[in-house]
């Protein structure tokens, strides 16, 4: 964990105990205060993302001690108390067919028992985080006037990769031309994503602990120039990209508290916080509608903000931050990740636990379609290509099914007019060796389509990536065993091959080999044309690499 992140997380948890005291349920198993503190930390780091801080469920199941709901006119009840410690221990240790992963290789038997007991208690409610709290956390390390006036290094910035070193709480900037690690910087805990300023000069990261950093790549070596905290649990940031607003604003979304924040794009000075609490598309109040993906429009001065539990998609107009205008579009519940179609007009976002993809027309500010898909779509940002039979398609893999879905998207180009009848339909499902896909990727210059499967329970599948030939999609994909190709010694924990990412030229694909915290991990680079291994970047500092963001492709939404 980074030195920036550690004391702040500890501080937030201290606040949690004071403001949101856990009330022990009468029948919940006993726990000491120390056990509760330890369990609270594990819950935040490992469980809250899927189940929610209030444990009302989203991608994961509801984990309240007791719940009741009405389905088809019938009242049903459930809860962790009903399941009891033994059953909960088994679920945590071995996972479920519903998509819960096994934790027996991540947590010790004692920790599994601790968590099984903890979730039978009433959830802890962490403190709110106000604009004033953000301002108090703001650290402007180098004012804009004191930063370089021009690029002070010779690195080809557009081909740099920002790589999350998850459990180290660090970010590696790797030179995409030389494959050398340029610099490793401290960030928030488990940086979730990096995004690029519209100019390509600044890298923004957001940690799971809400710490946001801005890194200036114009220095001789990349330098963190400001940090700010958004809340206590976060996943997304993006910049203002519309002409005239380049590098002007940054927006960040939090899981806790459920809100989004707007900051100055170069200094991170906090400007505004907007809560997302409210009604779901089903008309129920939700106290914890978390902000999932956020993306900046290229065609309007707007961000698309996807609110997970309510299923509401907000188009936030940033031309007047004081008098903020938002358009709220109803879609489907449990919005998660997504990306643009090839025209950059439609934003395609997975409503993952609803098994749907929502397409937002950012030109008209309306929902264009809600598309039924296979179980638990998880696109990352998705991948666009021209299908030989169906024309332009955007694609998503699935966590819960062994397919990749190809969805036909509209185009203004007359040569694609003949495909109109297919628009917003799943036109083909590509067969994968199993479920557990997280990310798909291709590039306009490539004929290959890459899909990973890191959440598959089979080692062989989770450690491989699968490459389809887009000229002949009837062929089975080529399996590349990334763990074997890395040449690293075998390890006890599965080394998950995750998130294919292209270089700027579109001729190399970089894969993270995400090992255990004490294992040697690596970035494995393949030649996209020949599918031959090109380079393995490994170093003791390359700890648990996950997301990789090529500067040019991220700036321009090339995927
Ligand atoms: Fe992610 C994207 C949330 C687990 C790696 N992840 C996203 C986005 C969200 C999200 C909302 C979209 C951000 C955007 O575009 O603005 N992720 C969550 C979760 O809630 C979840 C399920 C559980 C959690 O507690 O975080 C989760 N994610 C993971 C992982 O386990 C991964 C593999 C490793 C990690 O770092 O924890 C992981 N998520 C990623 C990556 C992206 C991402 C690499 C960006 C993909 C891209 O190409 O843009």
Automatic annotation (TrEMBL):
Coiled coil: none annotated. Pfam families: Cytochrom_D1, Cytochrome_CBB3. InterPro entries: Cyt_c-like_dom, Cyt_c-like_dom_sf, Cyt_cd1_C_sf, Haem_d1_sf. It comes from the Bacteria. The keyword Signal applies. Residues 1-26 form the signal peptide. GO terms for molecular function: electron transfer activity; heme binding; metal ion binding. Residues 34-123 form the Cytochrome c domain. Keywords: Heme, Iron, Metal-binding, Signal. This is Nitrite reductase.
